[in-house]
Amino acid sequence: MKLKFIYLTAAMPLIAAMTSCNNDEPGTDGGTEKPVITTGAYIINTGNWGANDGSIQWYDIDKGTASSDIYATSNGKGIGDLQDLCVYGSKLYAVSSTSSKIEILDKEGKIIKSMPLTMSNNKPLEPRFATAGDGYVFFTAYDGTVSKLDTLSQEIVSSVKVGDHPEGLSYTKGKVFVNISGYGKENTVAVVDAKTMTKVKDITVLLNPYTQSIVGSDGFVYIVSNGNYAGKDGLEEKDYIYGTLQRINPDTYQVEELCNATYIANKGDKMYILYSEYYLPERARCFVYDVKTGKETDFVKFSDIPTPGGIAVDPETEDVYIINQPYGALNDIYVYDKDGNKKSKFEAGQYTTGIRFVTE
After folding, report:
1. What digits encode the pLDDT tens for the residues 91-133?
2. HSE-up of 127 (CA within 13 Å, CB side)?
3. Positive or negative torsion for Cα 64, 359, 321, 85
4. CA 72 vs CA 21, 67, 101, 196, 330: distances in Å
5. CA dihedral 227, 232, 237, 240 (to 10 degrees)
């Protein structure tokens, strides 16, 4: 179960290179961190249920403007819904859950291949989230599986059962770490050997690990569990399980609870965090958590964003992007510098859920 947070044209210019995915393992070169240049960002607009108004926008960082829907411009039709977007190599992998498909797109949003996804009984597979590594894209689906898509053959080569309602996932060190939400009833992260596509372990975490799973700059896997929606009627305070950021050692599988969180973004030792409990709005905060020291520092006033629904950080400038997600209206994205000073705001699409920076 998910409660919504708080309430619940121009063609895109060519990009020199695309090397980012939302949760790739950080790269190194001879032990030295590679210099990063951000060329822009893709904006994920999931759209309203059944309305065919999901979209992909390209954000020009130099101009501070977002394009119209590059998918519609390139293909002459709407995408349906857009649950997730993985940027890997020179292609985009667009995941549509209610439309039950994955589409491989070029960097301007034009369809290279469309892959409708159904189960053996012809019911929709409902793919959810994607990550990538070592030449493959891995994605979860509501049939309880993680599947492996070969980016060269553009075919799904294998899949494995991982648990009830798998959601966000990340890839590091030849393993896929998969949040198993159980529709709000489970508390595990499944570990899959990416080469053999076998499940090797279930890691116990706090209740309801959901959309957030990233590999931090330090190589640890960071996940957010939504808990049991503390404060709701009929739940005693002693039983509250708050939304919590946890860190998993990918070698030992040891889990460490860090701080309260709902949405996270990472740059170096800093974790930028939006935190809110639907039934306990007085707890709401936007802050920076230092993953080395455990220190929490307020970033911006939570009240300055009417309906916050996501956060991302530019890997080059460390500018922080916060999604304002009003129900039934076009969303906005607020841009702050690394010290929390507001720089700008731009309009996105319907129900904006993610930002994927592209680097060279």
Report:
1. 999 999 999 999 999 999 999 999 999 999 999 999 999 999 9
2. 31
3. positive
4. 22, 11, 16, 37, 17
5. 0
